Amino acid sequence: MNPKSTIKGRGAQLNVPNRFFELSYEMRDDFLEFCHKDGEESDKNKTLYLEVFPKTIVNKVESPDIGMAYSMNPYQGCEHGCIYCYARNSHEYWGYSAGLDFERRILIKKDAPKLLETLLKKKTWKAHPIVMSGNTDCYQPAENTFEITRQCLEVFLKYKHPVSIITKNALILRDLDLLKALAKDNLIGVNMSITSLSEDIRRILEPRTTTIKKRLETVKMLSENGIPVNVMLAPIIPSINSHEILPLAKVVSEHGALSIAHTIVRLNGAIGEIFSDWIKKTMPDRADKVLHQIESCHGGNLNDSRYGTRMHGEGKIAEQINNLVKMARHKYFKGKVMPKLNLDLHEQFKEGQLKLF
């Protein structure tokens, strides 16, 4: 990889056109040359935090092959910059690009705790696990500043409501006090995403995420404090991290994880162009090989929206990956299981305290 040819600290290396917009813009070579001669920056590469005001915060998940029924996202867009992230496409609904905009235009939902509390107090609401980060990471760098996720966890604890978290950031340990309190009543489950044991791969695949070492330490710390952890080996990308399935499973099990889950990468919507551009700049020696192997897992396409096959793929390479995951579960997770979250307490705490009568 030539570091001079890439945008430092970002996954995407371009802003692809928004499919909902008739017009688009591009950086012309003559403009870049003008900036170079005048010693000016053509792109300041800064992150902007933009407050938005949604009317609701919890979304019902309709997809039949996603293991969640409800999700909530305190932030839209994600500064982690994971190049493969399926959530990139959702940024187009907000009027931005799925490319660099997704990493640099972060939408902040400061009202999320209030909206969540309003929902949990409704007489018609029945307890069901709500997943934080069904779309974008609730412990991304913005959480350091705004602490919206922590405030939401306080609401879940107050109303004794089950919550599940998906993250790849060690910042979750900041809220260990709340997580331990939730765990006492079996109201919390954590899904830590770990896609590689290689820091070199992590840096270019997930540029602003927590290091692998810290993520493993986080799994261990959570487990030692009685908080159940599932590790997401997701996505598995052929010829990038597919050879690490067994070593990854072994290490995360040794650090206390109770289970693993996986998906095979699929590059829907704008992500296909973003990923293809990225890999040709960062891994030119294997770009075509990786892209062709991804296609072989999805009926000859980079994208795949077919329920039932899109997550785990099809064909020989997908079969090999799925078999390795089965082998890893049998070898390193025998006798381990993630507990089901407690749905029974919330009804008694609808008003934020135990009902006596």
Fraction in helix = 25-40%
Strand order of the largest sheet: 2-3-6-7-8-9-10
The name CATH uses for the topology is TIM Barrel
Structural class: alpha/beta
Q: CATH homologous superfamily, by name?
A: Aldolase class I
How far apart, in Å, are the first and last alpha carbons?
Answer: 67 Å
Globally, the shape reads: globular
Instruction: Extract low-pLDDT stretches.
Output: none
- The count of strands amounts to 10
Residue share in β-strands: 5-15%
Helix-strand pattern: HEEEEHEHEHHEHEHHEHEHHH
Treating each run of at least 4 consecutive H or I residues as one helix, how many helices?
A: 12
Q: Mind describing the biggest β-sheet?
A: 7 strands, mixed
Number of domains: 1
Q: Rg to the nearest angstrom?
A: 21 Å
The CATH class designation is Alpha Beta
What does this protein structure show overall?
- 33% of the residues lie in helices and 12% in strands.
- The chain has 357 residues and is α/β, with parallel strands linked by helices.
- It has a single domain (36-337), classed as Alpha-Beta Barrel (TIM Barrel).
- β9, α9 and β10 (259-264) form a beta-alpha-beta unit.
- α3 packs parallel to α5, α5 (148-158) packs parallel to α6 and α9 runs parallel beside α12 (315-332).
- The longest helix has 18 residues, at 315-332.
- The mean pLDDT is 91.
- It comes from Confluentibacter flavum.
